[in-house]
Automatic annotation (TrEMBL):
Region annotated Disordered, chain positions: 1-21
Record GO terms (molecular function): hydrolase activity
Native source species: Sphaerisporangium rubeum
Keyword set, alphabetical order: Hydrolase
Lineage of producing organism: Bacteria, Bacillati, Actinomycetota, Actinomycetes, Streptosporangiales
SMART domains, sorted: Lactamase_B
Metallo-beta-lactamase domain segment(s): 34-245
TM regions (residue ranges): none
Repeat recorded as keyword: no
Protein name from the UniProt record: Glyoxylase-like metal-dependent hydrolase (Beta-lactamase superfamily II)
Length: 338
């Protein structure tokens, strides 16, 4: 399925019928290429679902793409952000400035936006480096000292909860809370057309990133949350999915089941790896290095290794809650077979 992904240069604004359009907005320097920003029409105005990365090229693509389907940014009612990541929330603040409307986001991600805005600049970078060192990153942590960090997204005006209707008069666009990729990730069900805007929760050809940050947290289990969120989509058997990346597709429930099976296989492989390494305990970074990724560990950039370690940490945490991994506190924290 991955071979069907087209480069950004091949993307065009698209009408999906029923007052729904998509506009591809580029993500500079990212292999995903672009975010699909959706515009949903109603008698009370048009609302965007996500907004794209905060970059001048992205802004031009969003503005011109909307114009191509007859929509002016200044006329928008607001933006619903599926989650706080910069390729989704980055331009929401600029859209709000242009249209005078609102930004809506789940309350859990809104709390993270407040935190990241407080930690903008050197303090946030220092915390990131320290987090990596506690996970055993070594030289990879040192490489992040001067790394560029995305501009924090704008604080939302509306904090959403599960099952709420979006302010879209004449239509029924309801939130479906699907934590895992982020604590406040939302899918949005357009009930009057049986369409599900899936954000990054369910994508047709790739699986979304699920990680723990800081890596050594023991008070959260995002992968278990994510698996439960996939199960929530079991009733969407005939619903059309409009994801934030790749392409639209049918069969949300089946795809969610496939993604769940992928993670269960990964958990089984990681449990087997810990058994093979027993009785020794290893840092999160050392374990991530021994896991299988889409490229050899040596070929990953430090930031990519950081994301891989976040995924390793999430899988280790789930194994820990299932009694299949044992945490050894310290700096760095280590894990072993129980």
């Amino acid at each position: 399925m991955k071979t069907r992904r087209r480069p950004y240069s091949d993307q065009r604004p698209t009408g999906h019928g029923g007052g729904v359009w998509s506009v591809p907005v580029p993500i500079p320097g990212n292999p995903l290429g672009y975010t699909l920003v959706y515009a949903v029409e109603s008698p009370g105005g048009i609302v965007l679902i996500d907004a794209g990365w905060n970059h001048e090229d992205a802004w031009t693509a969003l503005r011109d793409g909307l114009s191509a389907v007859g929509v002016r940014v200044s006329d928008l009612r607001g933006v619903v952000v599926t989650h706080y990541h910069p390729d989704h929330a980055g331009l929401a603040g600029r859209v709000r400035e242009e249209c005078g409307g609102w930004i809506a986001m789940h309350e859990a991600d809104a709390a993270l936006v407040r935190l990241y805005r407080e930690l903008a600049g050197d303090s946030g970078r220092t915390l990131q480096v320290e987090m990596m060192r506690r996970a055993g990153a070594g030289a990879d942590a040192d490489a992040m000292v001067n790394a560029e960090r995305p501009i924090p997204p704008a604080q939302p005006d509306i904090e959403l909860r599960d099952g709420e209707l979006i302010d879209l008069p004449g239509r029924a666009l309801r939130t479906v809370w699907t934590p895992g990729h982020t604590p406040g990730h939302l899918c949005l069900h357009l009930e009057d057309a049986d369409r599900l805007f899936t954000g990054d929760h369910v994508l047709p050809g790739i699986t979304p990133h699920v990680g723990i940050y800081p890596y050594d947290r023991a008070d959260t289990d995002p992968l278990t949350d994510f698996l439960g969120s996939l199960d929530r989509l079991a009733t969407f058997t005939t619903t059309e999915a409009l994801p934030a990346h790749e392409w639209t597709f049918k069969g949300v429930a089946a795809r969610a089941a496939d993604i769940r099976a992928h993670h269960e296989e990964k958990l089984d492989s990681l449990a087997a790896l810990l058994t093979d390494l027993a009785p020794d305990a290893y840092s999160i970074w050392q374990i991530a290095e021994k896991m299988t990724w889409n490229r050899p560990w040596a070929d990953l950039y430090p930031i990519q290794r950081g994301m891989a370690a976040g995924e390793a940490a999430a899988h280790l945490r789930t194994l820990e809650t299932r009694g299949q991994a044992l945490r050894h506190p310290g700096e760095p924290v280590r894990f072993s077979a129980p």
